C-alpha cells in the first residue's frame, strides 16, 4: 500500500475502534519509518501537532522497553500496559520499516482495558493488523 492508502486505512480503522469503544481509545497516532541509518515521521494525527516531535524519543521509552525483547512481523502489534501520559501505548508494524504508534494522552492501556467495550474495540484493531499484513506499506 502507498502512504496515502495507509493513512486512509489507519484513520478509518481508528474511527471504528473509537466508535466501538464509545470514546477515543487512542487520541493520537504517529506513523514512522525506522531505518538503520535514520528515522522519519511519515504522518501524525493528534492533539500535540505543534509539540509531539520535541519529546518523541522520551515518549517512546515505555514502548521501546516492550519492543526490546520482540521482533514484530508485519501486522504484529504490542501494547505498553503502563505507558503514562504522552508515552505511546501501542505499536503495530505496518511495513518493512514502518511502524504505527498510538496513544491515549491521558490514560494507560491498563486503564483503557478496564472498560467492557475494550474487547469489541480490539476486534477493529486486529482487522487493521490483517489489512497491513495483506498489503504492507511500501
Q: What does this entry show, briefly?
A:
By secondary structure, the protein is α+β, with helices and mostly antiparallel strands.
Task: Give descriptors for this structure.
single chain, 138 residues, alpha+beta, Beta-Lactamase, five-stranded antiparallel sheet, 5 helices, 5 strands, 38% helix
Record the SSE blueprint.
Elements: H1 3-21, E1 28-34, E2 39-45, H2 56-59, H3 61-68, E3 77-79, E4 90-93, E5 98-103, H4 109-112, H5 118-134
Antiparallel strand pairs: 1-2, 1-5, 3-4, 4-5
Shape call: globular
Number of helices: 5
Q: How many strand units?
A: 5
- Give the DSSP E fraction (strand runs of 2 or more residues): 15-25%
Here the CATH topology equals Beta-Lactamase
What is the CATH class designation?
Alpha Beta
Characterize the quaternary organization of these chains.
Answer: single chain
What is the H-and-E element order? HEEHHEEEHH
Question: Strand order of the main beta sheet, please?
Answer: 2-1-5-4-3
Helix content range: 25-40%
Largest sheet: 5 strands, antiparallel
Span of the ends, CA to CA: 6 Å
Cα-atom Rg, whole angstroms?
14 Å
CATH architecture annotation: 2-Layer Sandwich
The parts where pLDDT drops under 50 for at least 5 residues are: none
Amino acid at each position: 500500500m502507498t502512504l496515502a492508502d495507509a493513512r486512509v486505512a489507519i484513520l478509518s480503522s481508528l474511527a471504528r475502534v473509537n466508535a466501538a469503544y464509545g470514546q477515543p481509545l487512542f487520541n493520537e497516532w504517529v506513523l514512522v519509518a525506522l531505518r538503520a541509518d535514520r528515522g522519519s515521521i511519515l504522518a501524525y494525527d493528534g492533539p500535540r501537532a505543534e509539540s509531539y516531535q520535541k519529546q518523541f524519543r522520551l515518549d517512546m521509552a515505555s514502548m521501546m522497553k516492550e519492543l526490546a525483547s520482540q521482533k514484530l512481523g508485519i501486522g504484529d502489534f504490542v501494547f505498553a500496559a503502563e505507558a503514562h501520559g504522552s508515552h505511546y501505548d501501542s505499536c503495530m508494524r505496518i511495513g518493512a520499516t514502518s511502524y504505527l504508534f498510538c496513544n491515549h494522552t491521558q490514560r494507560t492501556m491498563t486503564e483503557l482495558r478496564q472498560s467492557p467495550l475494550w474487547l469489541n474495540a480490539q476486534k477493529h484493531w486486529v482487522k487493521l493488523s490483517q489489512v497491513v499484513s495483506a498489503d504492507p506499506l511500501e
